[in-house]
Amino acid sequence: MLARFIFAVILTEALTELIIEAQIFEPIKLRLMRIGRFVETLLTCGYCMSVWVGVGVAYLFRLRFGLFDLWWIEPLILGFILHRLANTWHDVLGWIRRKKYPEPPPPP
Questions:
Q1: Largest CA distance in the chain
Q2: Burial class (CB in 10 A: 0-12, 13-18, 19+), 75
């Protein structure tokens, strides 16, 4: 169960990054952004998108820890937890990337 949860965290981060950053989805995103401000914000904000990706992944994986009796509430709550952990994982990866490939200092 723990391995599935860790995989779900990594998948949430990866899907969010793919949706937000991948150039191949740009034409679709531009078309969807015409729907309204909410959708535009969702498609340009990784933090915002990861909430919904986390909830989707939790339902897809049928994540349950037996904390609640209602079948639909636990994946919803776990989706929010996935969102937070995926964002933390994203920050860790960014920190590692910056350590490995530091930006050159600005010219004098």
A1: 63
A2: buried
Residues 33 and 89: their CA atoms lie apart, in Å, by 27
- Angstrom distance (rounded) from CA 97 to CA 17: 15
Residues 49, 42 contacting (CB under 8 angstroms): yes
Q: Token digits for 62?
A: 């049928």
Q: What is the pLDDT of residues 8-48, one digit of tens each?
A: 999 999 999 999 999 998 999 999 999 999 999 989 998 88
Q: Which two tokens stand for residue 59?
A: 């339902």
Cβ pair 53, 14 in contact under 8 A? no
Measured CA to CA, the distance from residue 5 to residue 15 in angstroms comes to 15
Nearest CA-CA partner of 9 in 58, 72, 67: 58
* pTM of the shown model: 0.78
